[in-house]
# Entry
Amino acid sequence: MLIVLQNIFRFVLLVLFQVLVLNNIQFLGYINPYIYILFILSLPYQTPRWFTLILAFLIGLTIDTFSNTMGMHAFASVMVAFLRTGIIKLFTAIEEGNNPIPSFHTFGVSAYIKYVVAMVVIHHATLFIMEAFSFSNFWIMSLKIIMSSTLTILLILGLQSLKTK
# Structure
């Protein structure tokens, strides 16, 4: 029950922070941090895939509603949620029956950083490719993906480093 309440609190807090603070920040037109994906990244490992997909859709749709982006965040969030288990298995060796919440403490620093970087880059690449829906401005789109991913990764790792065991 405690994990459910923590996830509800995390959902609300991340959506409010994204909508009220980060959506109003746009450095040089290229950097848009999207920290709300920390919600998807922080779900317990054994959360059923169908439930993870629903939660990802809900958080993405909520951000879309406030950002007026017509489903792009929902699509990118569902993409990340779909690939989540495979990416976790790629970077960690979780024992059968173990249900860790991804963090520095449960995955180890190196594995957690790789996990966050992979998930954020996939999310941002999906989001910005959907936004442009063309490769005509490939270099500008690539710059947005790299710069936004870098800031988002730094924010997520910074927030996670503040957590205690």
About this structure: The mean pLDDT is 89.
